[in-house]
Amino acid sequence: MLLMDVGIVGYGVYIPQYRLRVEEVARVWGMDAERVKRGLLVEEKAVPGPDEDTATIAVEAARNAVRRARIDPQEIGAVYVGSESHPYAVKPTATVVAEAIEATPDLTAADFEFACKAGTAAIQTCMGMVEAGMIKYGMAIGADTAQGAPGDTLEYTAAAGGGAFILGKNGSEILAAIEGTYSYTTDMPDFWRRDMRPYPKHGGRFTGRPAYFKHVLSGANGLLRQLKLTPQDFAYVVFHQPNGKFPLQVAAELGFKKEQVMPGLLAPKVGNTYSGATLIGLAAILDQAEAGDRILAVSYGSGAGSDAFSLVVRDNLEAKRDAVPKTLDYVNHKINIDYGTYSKFRQLLVR
Amino acid sequence: MRKVAIIGTGLTKFGELWDVSFRQMIVDAGTRATEDAGIDGKQIDAMYVGNMSAGQFICQEHISSLIVDHAGLVPTPCTRVEGACASGSLALRQAVIAIASGIHDIVVAGGIEKMTDILTVQTTQALATAADQEWEAFVGATFPGLYALMARRHMYEYGTTEEQMAMVAVKNHHNACFNPCAQYHMEITVEDVLKSAPVDSPLKLLDCSPITDGAACLILAPAEEAKQYTDTPILVAGTGQASDSLSLHNRPTLTGLRGTVEAAKSAYEMAGVRPQDINFAEVHDCFTIAEIMAIEDLGFCNKGEGGKMTEQGETAIGGRMPINTSGGLKGKGHPVGATGVAQAVELVTQLRGEACKRQVEGAEIGLCHNVGGSGGTVVVHVLKRGD
């Protein structure tokens, strides 16, 4: 899918301030923390407070995006929230967000689910609607308070956070143009959560090579082929980051250098924010990119699929990015908690 | 009784073969074996296939019909043979008996297991059905648990150390690096083993063989006809099988397997050889302690000296008695039903002098040793060059 006019006119993120270190989880479960850290390249993960959920995280990110875009929220014609931890099974998160940012009532809204890539699927939907002239602005959000069963490997990484992106096609407002997007999708049982179950299940190592790597490599290569670009054409690259290791490995296999990956690699500090992960990483890159820089963003969602985007930064970005807290402000603003507090916050303890 | 020779071998890659189905794996191994033997499928008179538990691993029983059908060999008789992790060598033994008796001429001995289609916890439970359900599994014993008991007692009685056990894993991983079909091509150190996650103390993750998909096939023929098919037929000089109690607590000792001693005795006697005549061996190292016990029970060293023999490098390629040149179950992988056949494939490769970087110089007589469960079934074969 190649487009000429659509781009990002605003973006914002939110990451909860609480952090749980790998050492804390390993201590409770009798595992070797150094081993886990080496295996996952993750040090700690962001934990939502007791009064935070996917809706509050989405609202915080959305508000930052609107303020940064300096647009009238009434002109947002669509709000889509991608998550695998929507607070309600039936009743949209998107209406909560739309109401909170004062975009109601003249808009369409819905919740998306595609494991960790629902947020980038929402971006593609908004791109299409903006390009077609159905709406002026569309807001796509990826946010999660991810679940990891106590004692499961996922508990080291399943984190919380979100990113919101506003899509538009007025050239004078575009911070970064999206020059193309490509998706690669198959039916793949690598990671799932059945209805009414509190925690997901996963196929262990099967989630690696045939799932994450196959889809991310195919997604990235598909887009590079379509646009006739090579890794050398990009200043930055960001991948879905279930841990710190996979993105570095996939980058190396594609021929990207570590320097292109590191600015968008936040998993070591905040864990895997699921639907938020690629978007937060992309936001961190936009926080520091310069006009003319080309960025490759490749998401991954289990089940499975990958959405790849190529963006080119415009002059408008520099003037607007300091309007609200940046990604690293959230990453660095933190309070470490112990496993007991984590258990209380995540309602693992029942009175 | 006719003498029997192996005239062809075939092996799939061992590992997590997520994109290869059960039926494709066995057909791949079988096709390689028939090509190696230079025979047409129509010449095959019968097939015996070792498989522990397709029913639990892929929800498929009656695999004998499935296999012969997908090999395009209907109506050739095909029989599934089961003896837990010794299923493969039981299939080989059935093939040998069928030819020796004069009932069949060209016979396939195959082995296969597809273990990675289900979650690890389910695989562990499926494997545990090879132990005594009422007396062992229901009260929580797993295979690592049973072998950990043996390891503890061996350490107590003979002073065997965790370092010596680790050296088994280090050696087998090293050997596996030279085997293109092996699951792991990864050198490890004693320290890696000692620091790996505890599974069942004193056994750690790197003391344990992995969960593996894989298939192996052998083509066997009467020895007097073998030269029609190959210049280097490999004689099945001896075959021995023995049983022991299913549960560990009903045995007189924990520090060795009576089944190994008895099966080896039969195989040595039939082959007319002694332990010191053997040049190299593939033994059942499902856990590192199992290799140490095996080399003692097979008579390659005195009881209790297996750890020391390993430490002194005598079991390395180039040592006095190279053990598990293929990488063993630890390094090559352990698709349970295929393992016994794959061990014989390694013996044939060595005896033909085709083992490249892992070749044992002057290999004339080899032994393979395959254990079912914690030792309830043991099969030993002695193979010799037949030229």
Q: How would you describe what is shown here?
A:
In chain A, a hairpin with a 6-residue loop joins β12 (294-298) and β13. The longest helix of chain A is centred in the middle third of the chain and has 20 residues, at 208-227. The mean pLDDT of chain A is 96. Chain A is 34% helix and 23% strand. With 351 residues, chain A is an alpha/beta fold. Chain B is an alpha/beta fold and 387 residues long. In chain B, α4 crosses α14 (336-351) and α7 (162-176) crosses α11 (288-297). The model of chain B has no long low-confidence stretch (mean pLDDT 97). In chain B, a hairpin with a 2-residue loop joins β5 (198-200) and β6. The radius of gyration of chain B is 19 Å and the shape is globular. Chain B is built from 14 helices and eleven strands. Chain B starts with a strand and ends with a strand. The relative contact order of chain B is 0.20. In chain B, the strands form two sheets. Chain B has a nine-stranded mixed beta sheet, sandwiched between helices. A two-stranded antiparallel sheet of chain B has the order 5-6. Chain A binds chain B through residues 31-32, 35, 201, 203-206, 210, and chain B through 16, 18-19, 116, 119-120, 195, 197.
Could you give a short description of this structure?
Chain A is of the alpha/beta class.
Q: How much helix, percentage-wise, in residues of chain B?
A: 25-40%
Shape of chain B: globular
- N to C succession of SSEs of chain B: EHEHHEHEHHHHEEEHEHEHHHHEE
Kindly state the mean pLDDT of chain A as a whole number? 96
Structure annotation, total helices of chain B: 14
Number-wise, the strands of chain B total 11
Oligomer: heterodimer
Q: Gyration radius of chain A, to the nearest Å?
A: 19 Å
Per DSSP, what share of the residues of chain A sits in E-state strands of 2 or more residues?
15-25%
Shape of chain A: globular
Calculate Rg of chain B over CA atoms: 19 Å
Strand order of the largest sheet of chain A: 5-4-6-7-1-8-13-12-11
Q: What order do the SSEs of chain A take from the amino end to the carboxyl end, as H and E? A: EEHHEHEHEHEEEEEHEHHHHEEHHEH
Number of helices, where a helix is a run of at least 4 consecutive DSSP H or I residues of chain A: 13
